[in-house]
Records
---
Amino acid sequence: MKTLRVYRKSIFPADIDRVYRLLKKLKMLQYIAKPYASFTPVDGDSNIRWEKGQTTAFSFKLFCLIPFGVHTIRVISFSKQDIYTHESNTYVPIWNHRIRLRPLSDGRTEYSDEVEIGAGWKTVFVWLWAKCFYAHRQRKWIKYLSKARSK
């Protein structure tokens, strides 16, 4: 299956430890995904542990309204510098996501999302949505971290 890639990088106004700590929280994923998407654990357990080998299934809603099947996240690696997951859902069989974190000397963090998407004939449409989704996510991260820093 032909795939397309989305890549986006930003500088976050927080140190790598804070960003990594927040990445471990399901509530943070849910917060930064809105209003483009919602993720609700299928089993109702909100105490998700993001760690190597863990697989979690979510009820996925596009724009928090349109049911878009079950989205499964399988954690391949989860470390402070590199998080890699193989994800898929009913309509998008390939969604491989890598997050890279790099500490900067001034206490900020370079953050990047790279996603490989494969959805058959729908790939280009999913790729266009994903470009907007990851731009939104990173803007929302920066806004959240900036507010927290100013307090």
Note: The helical segments are 16-23, 26-33, 123-150.
---
Amino acid sequence: MKKILAIIMAVFTIFAITACGGSDKPKGSSGTQASQTQPAKPKTLQQQGLEDKSVSTEYRNALKKAIRYATLQHMSKARVYKQLTSPYGEKFPQDAAQWAVSHLSDIDWKANALAKAKRYQENMSMSKERVRQQLSSPYGEEFTKEEADYAISHLPK
């Protein structure tokens, strides 16, 4: 009797899944309604650069590396360029690195400066003025004065 009930339940479950089409969408929903009512967002310069098959793989690879350095390590634009071209770093040609950096349209450089500033303040117990100096120094992070000022003004008290 238990086996017969198990078989009936299995058949019923398979029938129910098949009848519903195995979909979580309500009947009559094609899933395209949202795309029909919402215009497609234009691609950013950064997205366009990643997809641009008219430029060499070297350029697109430089952009991919630049995105990683900017987003994961919160580097400044100048430091990203130096890392891409450094003989001790990525060794990309200057033109590829410049193209890559000029396509970093999705990076919030002020947010990067703030992230670095927080690390210096918390991990190295630096004063705000010393953090500002480190952020904007050509021997440090090389953020612009505006980016460094933003970071300092948004540090926790």
Note: The CA atoms of residues 84 and 90 lie 5 Å apart.
---
Amino acid sequence: MGLEKLKPTAIITEDSNSGFQFFQAVCAENGIFCESAGGKSNIFKMLSDRAGENVLVVADGAAFGSQMERIMQLLALQPDSHIYLPESFEWLILQSGLLEDGEINDILESPEKYVDSLQYFSWERFFTALLTQRTSNSYLSYTKSKLNPVYLQEQEKDAILSVIPKVQFKNEENL
């Protein structure tokens, strides 16, 4: 891909909740097709069905390991498609800097020091709990099932998108 930004014509998200709602809205604004896979096990077929297109798959890296080998083999045959694996959508929000909280930065640098595996089945659940707790009673209040519209406001949306490297979502020439 070099130094050029990826300009997807379609995005497939593993998520079917807030993460999908976020990407669906961003894509709708910019003429990009967006679809939820409804889980990691459906991504392979959906990506196969879009062979020849410039597809970006966004999936939770925290839970994607079991799918990695066959997806990477498929991506080798579909050089215009790419995959981005943040820990979770909640991790993207935490990483965006929208929450000005030094402890969050420390947690993001070394999550293994903070995640209690007896309490949290996955890092995704940990980051969801952290984001939900740290945004409760604020304008950024977060729930996994329904995206707070504030995350689609220009400043908040751009902060979240800035975490995703080398992807151009807006159909503008000079981004």
Note: Helices lie at 18-29, 43-49, 68-77, 89-95, 102-109, 123-135, 154-161.
